[in-house]
TrEMBL record:
Residues 1-12 have a biased composition (Polar residues). One of its GO terms (cellular component) is plasma membrane. It comes from Succinatimonas hippei (strain DSM 22608 / JCM 16073 / KCTC 15190 / YIT 12066). It is a single-pass type II membrane protein. This is Cell division protein FtsL. It comes from the Bacteria. Residues 13-31, 39-49 have a biased composition (Basic and acidic residues). Residues 1-49 are annotated as: Disordered. Keywords: Cell cycle, Cell division, Cell membrane, Membrane, Transmembrane, Transmembrane helix. Its main location: membrane.
Amino acid sequence: MFNDNTALNLDNENLKAAEKEDSAQESKEQEAVLPFSLKTKDNEKSDHVNEQSIDEFENLKMDSGEDRYFSYRPEYANLWQIEERLVPSILADISKNFLTYFLGAVLCALSLYKVYQVQETRDLTARYNEVMMNNENLHKEWLSLLAQRQTLSEQGAIREAATQKLKMVAPKTEAEQVIKIN
């Protein structure tokens, strides 16, 4: 049976082997990037360059990018033809999935109707609140007018207003004249 130390040792060995493979891959990539030899400490005095490496470097094919960019692809050369084929393609897709698109359009319409309905409800609620506030103000004014009528209809208030505001005096009983109407 394996214990924890054995498992750790195996993992460390696998890790070291992977690191060696990565370093070997990196060195191969560096050689591919630099196809000619560089100066090293051993051959600093000589400017010898490997002739075969230079030939390989000169014969490298440059990528024009034609495969990567749509503008260079022959099937996209005439965009007008693609636009002409786009409309029938869209119409075919709509006819194929008509129920889905129809239900989506109905859902959008119902959503817009719900927004309209909520806005109308808010407007009506605001108008209702204004009318109720106006009604309450009119009710308060009516109550104050009733109270004022009550106070003004009393005999004492009438007599006091006549003497103070109109400077009226009550006639003496001897000066009173009674007129008979038949």
